[in-house]
Amino acid sequence: MEGRQLLVTTNQNWPFFRIAEWDNNDTVIGVSGIDLSIIRALAHTLNFTFRLVRPPDGKWGSLQRDGTITGLIGQVARHEAHLALCELTITSSRESVVDFTVPYYMESTTLVSPAPKEKNRAFAVFSPFTLKVWICLCAVTCGMGPLLRILTRFLVTLLHYPDLHHYNTSVLCFNVFRNLMIQSSVFRPEVWVLRFPFFFWYLFCFYIYALYSGTLTAVLAAPTYETPIETLSDLEAAHSRGFTIATTRDSSFEHAFKSARSGIYREVWQLFDHNDRSISFLPAPEDGFDLINSLVKATQRSLRRFHISRHTFLPQNYGVACPSGSPYQPLFSNVLRRMTEGGLILKWAGEEVNKAVAPHHTQGASHTHTDTTTTTTLTPLNLQHLQAAFFLLVFGVTLGGLVMCTEMITTPRRRSTNTTTTRRMV
Predict the structure, then answer these.
(1) What pairing do the DSSP bridges indicate for beta strands 247-248 and 281-282?
(2) Torsion of CA 309, 312, 318, 324, to 10 degrees
(3) Are residues 136 and 71 in the same domain?
(4) Do the Cβ atoms of 130 and 212 come closer than 8 Å?
(5) Per residue in 228-248, pLDDT tens?
(6) Bridge partner residues of 6 (DSSP)
(7) Do 34 and 349 contact (CB within 8 A), yes or no?
(8) Is the pLDDT confidence value at 366 over 60?
(9) Is the pTM of this model over 0.70?
(10) Which segments constitute the Ionotropic glutamate receptor C-terminal domain (predicted)?
């Protein structure tokens, strides 16, 4: 190419392109990035120089309904730049106005959301079982005493067994509760009609106690976290909890959801804020945090602050955009193919991601030992873990006080009624 200077349009989009600008002379200088390494390699191989420019609107660009073309794609389509290189996804809409080289990078989209918060363990004593299980346990415990009372009445009335004092309903109910708390039984059934129910009740209580104590120990020993956002189907629930679904405006991400006529992509599109587009459609990834973003950008986020979904979708192919019919497109494609086959682009991508990961490791080095110690050493239970137990105690005492007040109110009435009845009998 005999040292010709080409205009390369790009955007601030690290790790693909990091640029610096000087407003006094509109100079754009490339600092680092995967695409910067690519354009430098192309320039060295094909013998040309380049000068970086930026689109006035700062968009990646696409063909609009009114026929206008925005962003990087618009500059190339209008021959204001020789090529565009900035994580440009190859789409059918863009290919209708510019020519793309062969894809030099492929990745999938993932969901990046704030790291799940630790669940409140204030009522951890109730966490081993679900609400339905607790209701069933209460129902079985309350019903077991009356059931045994019916059996004893059957023994006394029909089979003429002696009516023992521990056949009382209150004694039977209290004994059932003692068994559930793994306490010794004060009731010794003398007949097989009662031995079988009590035997299997003991097994039931032991099984419930083992499950409860084991699960409670695990809950208190290891923290549990809220369910993270893993799939596109989870976005609706996240949106109802106040999350904002966002992505880069005029990008391939927006186009993919916008062009969908049905299915999950269409459902996600309806979750975006279309009344105020500045909330859901960001000018650039650096202007806000995107729930929907590329996997490379996701890996540079701190894992302490964000959760990266293991599920991926919407595969993306990145290419260099050239004007339609450009003679440089075959040359660029040939060199890009050789770089891709040689593993250079993956090498540059790894280096850029490591630049972001290394500072996090350096800053977190002092915390590594502390975190390891925390996970391997048992920590004492604090008041937050056990406040539900104190709540139950206070509830029981309060309930007893209410019963006492009720009896204080009703007892004088009973005495006056009994006195009146006695006088009438006399």
Answers:
(1) parallel
(2) -130
(3) no
(4) no
(5) 888 888 888 888 888 888 887
(6) 50
(7) yes
(8) no
(9) no
(10) 5-350
